Structure to design on (320 residues):
């Protein structure tokens, strides 16, 4: 080997490869986690205060939220429960919880789309009740299960779930992947004045937001805004794209995508195998951008829906 090649590079290609990969990983690790977000001091003002009109007017002091968004406790990914714990909390009826000592100013419906991931649901549901009960909000968990063998259609499931939650008079919808667990207690589950991408910092993506218009994972959107954009396209079968299409709908309606600071937006992703990828997703998204046909919550078609009130969540079983 020529003596002009520095000694450090006079190694086997695999060694050089490993060093290069290691350097890339290091650069990524220290890369700016930068994304635009609402500064902590403005978060309270950005909250959408709206309660479900169905909840009775109780003579309790109003709940406070400043103490929630200023919490500093963070769960370490490695401390997350791996298995279903025997968590059987009191005070939860059909997946719904009301704060005990104060009158909530915020009601949210958590919509969780689901199929065939029982072990994740068994961790997710108790974890979320534990997490949300500390937030002074009124909430209800809906699990929308696709009960057929057709290709997975997350957009349709969300559209159907949203119809039910809106009929139940929830003013704020939180669209939630079943494999994402929030780590920061300050991550208040609430809508903001604009659609809010909540899962900006996921461990699987090394806590870096992959791109600015990502709205997949966990998104909080007011029921009014969901209706305004007519929800998701029903045309995406299989994995991917439906969330990017939703982002396009949000922006087309002159709405914005807001986020909270990274230290409030961390999530851990439960391991799972990759769903079948939709090879047509780019094409469908392009067609949707150019089309003026109505396609969304108000045109969603399905074979049957079966609603079952269970203790820790309301199950909306759907055959597409
Ligand atoms: C993107 C997917 C999203 C997914 C994120 C994060 C597409 C492009 C379709 C036009 N988008 O690449 O659906 O949420 O990754 O995993 O595939």
């Amino acid at each position: 080997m020529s003596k002009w090649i520095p000694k450090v590079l006079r190694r086997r290609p695999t060694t050089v490869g490993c060093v290069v990969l290691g350097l890339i990983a290091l650069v990524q690790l220290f890369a700016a986690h930068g994304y635009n977000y609402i500064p902590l001091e403005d978060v309270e003002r950005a909250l959408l205060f709206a309660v479900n009109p169905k909840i009775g007017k109780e003579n309790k002091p109003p709940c406070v939220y400043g103490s929630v968004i200023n919490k500093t406790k963070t769960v370490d990914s490695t401390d997350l429960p791996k298995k279903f714990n025997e968590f059987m909390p009191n005070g939860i009826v059909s997946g719904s919880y009301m704060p005990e000592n104060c009158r909530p100013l915020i009601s949210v419906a958590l919509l969780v789309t689901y199929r065939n991931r029982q072990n994740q649901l068994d961790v997710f549901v108790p974890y979320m009740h534990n997490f949300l009960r500390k937030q002074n909000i009124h909430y209800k968990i809906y699990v929308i299960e696709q009960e057929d063998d057709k290709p997975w259609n997350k957009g349709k499931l969300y559209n159907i779930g949203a119809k039910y939650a809106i009929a139940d008079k929830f003013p704020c919808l939180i669209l939630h992947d079943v494999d994402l667990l929030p780590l920061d207690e300050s991550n208040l589950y609430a809508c903001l004045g604009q659609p809010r991408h909540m899962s900006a910092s996921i461990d699987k993506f090394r806590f870096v937001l992959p791109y600015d218009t990502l709205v997949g994972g966990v998104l909080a959107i007011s029921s009014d805004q969901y209706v305004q954009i007519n929800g998701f396209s029903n045309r995406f079968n299989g994995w991917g794209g439906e969330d990017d299409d939703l982002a396009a709908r949000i922006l087309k309606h002159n709405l914005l995508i807001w986020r909270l600071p990274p230290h409030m937006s961390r999530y851990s992703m439960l391991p799972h195998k990759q769903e079948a990828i939709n090879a047509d997703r780019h094409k469908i998204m392009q067609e949707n951008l150019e089309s003026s046909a109505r396609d969304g919550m108000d045109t969603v078609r399905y074979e049957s829906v079966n609603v079952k009130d269970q203790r820790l969540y309301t199950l909306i079983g759907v055959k597409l």
User: Anything to note?
Assistant: The mean pLDDT is 91.
